[in-house]
Amino acid sequence: MKKLNTLFLTAGMLASLTAQAQLRVEISGVGSNQIPVAVAAFVDEGQSPTQISKVIKTDLERSGAFKVIDAGTISDINSVDAASYKARGADALVVGTVQKQPNGTYDVRYKLMSTIQNAKISQLDQQAPAQFTRLSAHKIADDVYEKLTGVRGIFATRIAYVTQQGRSYRLEVADADGENVQLALSSNEPIISPSWSPDGTKVAYVSFEQKKPVIYVQNLITRQRTVIANERGSNSAPSWSPDGSRIALALSKTGNTQVYIANSSGGGIRRISNSSGIDTEPQFSADGQSIYFTSDRSGGPQIYRMSANGGDAQRVTFKGNYNISPRISSDGKSLAYISRRNGNFQLYVMDLASGQELRLSDNTNDQAPSFAPNGKYILYSTESGGRKALAVVSVDGRVKQRLTIQAGAIKEPTWGPFMK
């Protein structure tokens, strides 16, 4: 309950920010082995501002991992013959209740039943203020996803991105499904390269509001901002260490852009790369011991890895003559990046152990990949119908989503961490 309260508190303070453009989500493709799961309408969910069962169904369908079956309404969740739903093709059954409390909060309870064993697999009881009943539904979907796949769900996580309409730039935060959009920063100058802190309470980004690129860290709860780098020349590409204590960045203060490390509270800037080329787009490895970055030291942009303390670098990408924007999965096993092949900039993912790569996009102008915290999906910017849009693809390439807004461009996405 303590963790859930922390999540509610963080989201609640964010909710005080101004909501603006709503994302629209389009889904295509399905997983290779979908799990059939029946979801019943929650008892008395009409009392809640959120139709809990609808959010759960949408989350599970959006993942591509489940075939959702409408179980109708089950009025007594303590006396359910789950086995009877096996005949309807379901391997599992989701049931629940919603009850409004005298203090105005909502008691949201759910059970996950095995139709094969006719037994309870999991349950979750939550007390949620009205504005967070939707978050409660996401947490239930996360629990269903984890119990049935063995992988932690990402429906209660958030994403950050930049929208542009004319000369108006907005750094926005939304739920992973594009709902509940909140404004973090608005500017008449470009905002680029947002990067979540590991605890999900801060975002580092580059703002041109001082008529030059400057790196800031903004607390999403208090909105307090700290300047991390305002050196001579370009200050760009901030990226957090896994423990949140350091930020890798790219600075050009001595000439060619090189990789540096700074304290996440500001100060302590020290150089860790030293090449005659351009070294940029640094990303910490999952264990924080290495830095992946883009360098043209071999004559064209390729992805390299070096110690987080600096030193010699090893080249990681060899296929294609233009590979940029490295991003590492949370388990450290996969590398996502953008590769130019036949004139197209497309999203690829590489198994770092085998070096085997897979193209995940059929578009021609992909940018800024970002792994979901469970490593099963990648969020990136692309171009659709001549407009900038966001897309999500599963790491096997089977499930795809596209997120658009009604007007303007949406770009520079980054997927937030699991909330603690």
UniProtKB/TrEMBL annotation:
Residues 1-21 form the signal peptide. The keyword Signal applies. GO terms for biological process: cell division; protein import. The gene is tolB. Keywords: Cell cycle, Cell division, Periplasm, Signal. Part of the Tol-Pal system, which plays a role in outer membrane invagination during cell division and is important for maintaining outer membrane integrity. It holds the Pfam family PD40. This is Tol-Pal system protein TolB. GO terms for cellular component: periplasmic space. Belongs to the TolB family. It is found in: Periplasm. The Tol-Pal system is composed of five core proteins: the inner membrane proteins TolA, TolQ and TolR, the periplasmic protein TolB and the outer membrane protein Pal. They form a network linking the inner and outer membranes and the peptidoglycan layer. Residues 23-119 form the TolB N-terminal domain.
